[in-house]
Write a structure and sequence with these properties.
The structure is a single chain. This protein has 359 residues and is an alpha/beta fold. It has two domains: 11-221, TIM Barrel (Alpha-Beta Barrel), CATH 3.20.20; 235-358, Lyase, Ornithine Decarboxylase, Chain A, domain 1 (Beta Barrel), CATH 2.40.37. The chain has eleven helices and 18 strands. The protein has helices spanning 11-24, 35-39, 43-49, 61-69, 85-94, 103-110, 135-146, 171-183, 195-200, 332-338, 343-348; strands spanning 6-9, 29-33, 55-58, 76-78, 97-100, 120-123, 156-158, 190-191, 208-209, 235-247, 252-253, 259-260, 265-270, 287-290, 293-297, 306-309, 322-326, 355-358. Strands 8-7-6-5-4-3-2-9 form an eight-stranded parallel β-sheet. Strands 10-13-16-15-14-17 form a six-stranded antiparallel β-barrel. Helix 4 (61-69) packs parallel to helix 5 (85-94). The relative contact order is 0.14. Bound molecules: pyridoxal-5'-phosphate.
Length: 359
């Protein structure tokens, strides 16, 4: 049975994008970020496609365990570390690498079972003011960790950039200077850059880059699309036409009747809505591809449906015809602008009811 809404995942595009990332950061190893169900693309399928990555990064223990349960043994970093003894034990058994960003996590490591060994990434808060140690606290955390028997020597060094997608700001330069000052005389591997950081700041590439969005073929920089960088979009969100009707000028469409036909209009109804993660705030005028041709939304997004003005299409749509909401031929970056959000949120936000099909 054909699903009404599907997200097709192009694994050859994923592999291509990993190669592009490697070309940009030829001296760095790649920690492929696959948290949040690989940005909506499917954690295990993406991990399998990216098995040549040097490591994976996930936010939480359960995400890492899902990889291990699928038999994936690639080194895996927990970007938020662990928060209780149970998580610590699970991480030890699974061989996860831990980001350590809070004093409580160092105390937790003190309680690790004899024989447990962790590769640890100590996180400097270089100015984002979210996770990490600052100033003196970083130096003393480094000393405490280095003295722990369960921590592999040397401790590795980590920070995160707040505004790398706005390279014209002084923020990233300030963060890089703070990281350098705090870590200059320390041994260990270094990891600083997310997608935007590795694109815009060669100095941030360091030993390990941590791309997420780029791997999915999407630009982290506003005003550009992944294709501009030679990337290929990985996810295409698809649905079908389930009704076609002709409206007279003056007729209204959808809840609240907030779109009025200004001319005799042919309207196609497609089976996709906010129940699938296609945002309700997308306004009339948002593009969609019907049979590969561009048309625009007319009326409010419902839970299960949208209306599309197909009056000007060369080929009149019929029931069952394909509709692309984003992806192949319609950049998710463009839809994100219409939705007044970032592509990350659209990709992560596809709902349980969307059938993910791995190609
Ligand atoms: C999510 C995340 C990344 C990846 O960010 P992108 O912008 O998708 O490349 C890198 N590092 C950390 C710490 C993250 O949380």
């Amino acid at each position: 049975m054909t699903p009404m809404v599907s997200a097709t995942i192009d694994t050859s595009a994923l592999r291509h994008n990993l190669q592009v990332v490697r070309q940009w950061a030829p001296r760095s190893r790649v920690m492929a970020v696959i948290k949040a169900n690989a940005y909506g693309h499917g954690l295990v399928a993406v991990a399998r496609a990216l098995e040549s990555a040097d490591a994976f990064a996930v936010a939480r223990v359960d995400e890492g365990l899902t990889l291990r349960e699928a038999g994936i043994k690639t080194p895996t970093v927990l970007l938020e570390g662990v928060f209780d003894f149970e998580q610590l034990e699970a991480a030890a058994a699974a061989g996860f690498e831990l980001v350590v960003h809070a004093p409580e996590q160092i105390e937790l490591l003190r309680s690790a079972a004899a024989g447990a060994r962790f590769k640890v990434w100590l996180k400097l808060d270089s100015g984002m003011n979210r996770l990490g140690f600052k100033g003196e606290a970083f130096a003393s955390a480094h000393a405490s960790l280095s003295a722990l028997g369960c921590v592999q020597s040397p401790v590795n060094l980590f920070t995160h950039l707040a505004s790398a997608d706005e390279p014209e700001l002084p923020t990233t330069g300030d963060q890089l200077a703070r990281f350098d000052a705090a870590t200059r005389f320390l041994p260990g591997e270094r990891s600083i850059a997310n997608s935007a950081g590795m694109l815009s700041f060669a100095a941030a590439q360091a030993d390990w880059v941590r791309p997420g969005l780029l791997l999915y073929g999407v630009s982290p920089i506003a005003g550009a699309i992944g294709v501009d960088y030679g990337l290929q979009p990985v996810m295409t969100l698809r649905s079908h036409v389930i009704a076609v009707k002709d409206l007279a000028a003056g007729e209204q469409v959808g809840y609240g009747g907030n779109w009025t036909a200004a001319r005799p209009t042919r309207l196609a109804v497609a089976a996709v809505g906010y129940g699938d993660g296609y945002p309700r705030n997308l306004p009339s005028g948002t593009p969609a591809l019907v049979n590969g041709e561009r048309a625009v939304l007319a009326g409010r997004v419902s839970m299960d449906m949208i209306g599309i003005d197909v009056t000007d299409l060369r080929r009149a749509p019929k029931l069952g015809d394909p509709v692309i909401l984003w992806g192949d031929g319609l950049p998710v970056e463009e839809i994100a602008v219409w939705a007044e959000t970032i592509p990350y949120e659209l990709l992560c936000g596809i709902s349980q009811r969307v059938a993910v099909a791995v190609l």
